[in-house]
Amino acid sequence: MLVSLIIPMLNESEGIRSLWSRLTEVTSQLPSHNFEAVFIDDGSTDQTAEIIQELPATVGLSWKLIQFSRNFGHQAAITAGMVNASGEAMIFLDADLQDPPELIPVFLEKYQEGNDVVYGIRKNRKEPLWLKFCFGTFYRLFNAISERPIPLDAGEFGLVSRRVGKLIAGMPERDRLIRGMRSWVGFKQVGVPYDRPERHAGTTSYSIARRIEGALDGLFGYSKVPIRLAFFLGLLVFVLGGVYLLQSYVMMFITGNKGVIGWRSVITLIFMLGGANLIATSIVGEYVCRIYFQGKSRPLYIVETSSFSPGSQHTSAAS
Ligand code: UDP
Ligand code: MG
User: Fold this and answer.
1) Among 45, 205, 301, which is best to mutate for testing ligand 1, by the most ligand atoms less than 8 A from CB?
2) 256 CA to middle of ligand 2, Å?
3) Residue 96 Cα distances to 12, 99, 154, 273, angstroms
C-alpha cells in the first residue's frame, strides 16, 4: 500500500534533514508499505526547497516537492498536499517534528482496523501557559457553537483515507480549518493520544495576530451562532430600552417630578446602544467579508513548480 506523508513547510531549512532521517527510520520498519513524502514549500525564503531536492530517496520512501508562488498558509498547503497525493492513505505532519513520525505505524494500524480518519490528541502541549489557555478556550468555544464539534486538543496531525482526503481537498471553501472539515465528513473516526514535543529547530511562523485570525476564521466559518447572537443582543437592548421608558413614565406619574433628571441614564443608553449596534454590524460584516472572498473564487494557492525524487513515479501536480 502506498502512503502519502503530507508535510507543509515554511522556512524549515534547519530541521529538514533530521525530519528526513526520522522518517527514513520509521518507514524502513514498515516494509509492507511504500511511502511518498509530499512536501509543500509554502513560499519559503530560506533554503527549504534546495535542501529537500538533495534528500536521498530510499526503496520505500520517495518525495515530491510542490512549490507555491508565494506564502498561501498552512491550510492551503495541506490542501495542495491532498490534491497531489497518490497514496491510499494520507498522513498530515508538521515539518518541525512536533508531530512525532513514530506515530505513523499506530495511525496505519487504526486505518487497517477500518477507520477512515485517525487523529492525534495532544496529551500535554509543551507551550506557554497562556497559549495553552487560549487554545483550550478556543476549542471549547468552537465546539459550543459550531454545527459540528471537533475533537478537543486535536490538530491536523493524523491520517485520512484517500476518499476523505480527496473529499476535503474538493471542498471549495476558502476558510479552511482542515480539522473541522475532517470532522464534518463523518465516516469512522478515532483519536490517538500522544505527547506533543517542542519544535526541534527554527521558530513558529504563527504570530499572535495570525493565530487570532485563524481562530476568527474557525468561529465564523463554521457557525451561524455569532450572527444569531447579534440578533438576540439587539432584541435584548431594544426590550430593555422599552422597559426603561415605561418605568420612567410610571415614576413620573407617581412622583409628579418632571425635572431634568436622568441624563446619566441617557448617556449610558447612548453608549450601550451604540456598542450593541457596532457589535451587531461587525458580526454581519464578518460574514459578508467571507462571502466576498468566497465570491471571488480565486484558487486557494498557485503552484510555481514541482519536482520529484530521482527514480520516483509521479503524477503531474495541479494547482
Ligand atoms: N507552515 C506553512 N505555512 C505557513 C505557516 C506554517 O506551511 O504559513 C507550516 C510549518 O512549516 C510547519 C507547520 O505548518 O510545518 C506548522 O507551523 P508551525 O510549527 O509554525 O505552527 P505551530 O506548531 O507553532 O502551531
Ligand atoms: Mg509547530
Assistant:
1) 205
2) 69
3) 7, 8, 17, 48
Report the DSSP pairing between strands 2-9 and 89-92. parallel
Q: What is the pLDDT of residues 258-294, one digit of tens each?
A: 766 676 678 778 877 887 888 888 888 888 888 887 7
- Alpha-helical regions (H) of 113-202: 129-145, 162-169, 178-185
CA 150 vs CA 144, 188, 190, 309: distances in Å:
10, 14, 12, 36
Q: What is the pLDDT of residues 196-251, one digit of tens each?
A: 877 776 777 777 788 788 788 777 777 777 888 888 888 888 788 888 888 878 88
Place of cell 451587531: 280
Q: What gap in Å lies between CA 300 and CA 298, rounded to an integer?
A: 6
Domain positions in the chain are 2-209+299-308, 225-296
Is the pLDDT confidence value at 15 over 50?
A: yes
Sheet with 2-9: strands ordered across: 189-196, 117-125, 154-161, 89-92, 2-9, 34-41, 61-68, 303-308
Cβ of residue 12 lying under 6 Å from some atom of ligand 1? yes
Cα(316) to centroid(ligand 2), Å? 29
Amino acid at 275: G
* Candidate CATH numbers 3.40.1180.10, 3.20.20.70, 3.40.1390.10, 3.90.550.10; the one for domain 2-209+299-308: 3.90.550.10
